[in-house]
Write a structure and sequence with these properties.
Blueprint (H helix, E strand, L loop, with lengths): L4 H15 L7 H4 L6 H18 L13 H8 L3 H12 L6 H6 L14 H14 L1
């Protein structure tokens, strides 16, 4: 990809602060640094929203992205955030571990529109990865 996952995540993280209307914590504007559990909570919430934005549950296929490293590579997340997002997705009530374990990745059926250039390229890339 050539992208810097950390920079990409930082932009999403800062946008998450704005979306959630977290108060500004710039020492230059407020006069004093703010520390404590509220700041830590806001940071965790911004991390979670940024991760969910960059790797939305509806797009993550845990049969294909079955490790944090694969999730990081597929969605351009820093490894630490990918590990956290992976844990959230695996533990989500929408993902039943027994069902995921029962579907072997090699036997998963994906319908590809071979008349669609992007679909065909995606399928060729996936097949090349499996070999």
């Amino acid at each position: 990809r050539g992208e810097d996952p950390r920079a990409r995540f930082t932009i999403a993280h800062e946008l998450a602060h704005a979306v959630m209307e977290h108060p500004g914590r710039n020492r230059k504007t407020s006069g004093a640094q703010q520390f404590g559990r509220f700041v830590e909570t806001d940071e965790r919430k911004a991390d979670d929203l940024a991760s969910a934005f960059l790797a939305p549950q509806t797009l993550v296929d845990l049969t294909m992205c079955n490790t944090p490293e694969l999730l990081a590579n597929e969605f351009g997340l820093p490894i630490g955030m990918a590990e956290r997002r992976f844990t959230q997705l695996v533990n989500s009530p929408q993902n039943k571990p027994a069902r995921l374990a029962a579907i072997p990745p090699a036997r998963r059926t994906v319908i590809i529109d071979t008349g669609n250039y992007e679909d065909a390229l995606w399928a060729m890339a996936r097949n090349a990865e499996r070999r």
